[in-house]
Specification:
This protein is an alpha+beta fold. The protein is built from two helices and six strands; from the N terminus they run H-E-H-E-E-E-E-E. Strands 4-5-1-2-3-6 form a six-stranded antiparallel beta sheet, with helices on one face. The chain has a single domain, classed as Roll (10 Kd Chaperonin, Protein Cpn10, Chain O). It starts with 9 loop residues before the first helix and ends in a 7-residue tail after the last strand.
């Protein structure tokens, strides 16, 4: 059954991820790498429904199968068009810190930053920008 009502506002979701990740000052990415924080559905929806915790639950699966992530840090070479042997073109597209974006669940290197699930990915792994994280499952 499709979700027709937002689980929470995009800003509330962003604040949960940022609070979970904590201070990132001094965390510097190199090359064309991007640090993203995994979107985890809230414990309680805007309508008051509690989502269960624990193993094999929807919220737990968000860590492994979630496709929506929040851009936290961007390396200095990200989204730079280059020529030569490693040709790439981003057609003027790029993302900014604070954007909700889509990535394949299997992409990137999974890690925890201050106990929050994150990924370190390449800029080319980002497939789309979305207005709210609960739009895609």
């Amino acid at each position: 059954m499709p979700i027709t009502k937002m689980l929470e506002s995009p800003d509330a979701a962003k604040q949960r991820v940022l609070a979970g990740v904590g201070d990132l000052s001094g965390f510097d990415l190199f090359y064309h790498r991007i640090l993203v924080g995994q979107y985890l559905r809230p414990e309680r929806t805007q309508g008051g429904v509690f989502l269960p915790e624990g193993k094999n639950t929807t919220r737990e699966e968000d860590r492994y199968q979630g496709k929506t992530v929040l851009v936290l840090k961007i390396g200095p070479g990200a989204f730079k068009d280059v020529g030569g042997l490693y040709e790439s073109s981003y057609y003027g597209q790029r993302v900014e810190v604070g954007d909700w974006v889509l990535v394949k669940p299997t992409e990137g290197w999974q890690l925890f930053v201050n106990d929050w699930p994150c990924k370190e990915i390449e800029d080319s792994m980002i497939m789309a920008r979305v207005p709210r994280p609960d739009m895609i499952y």
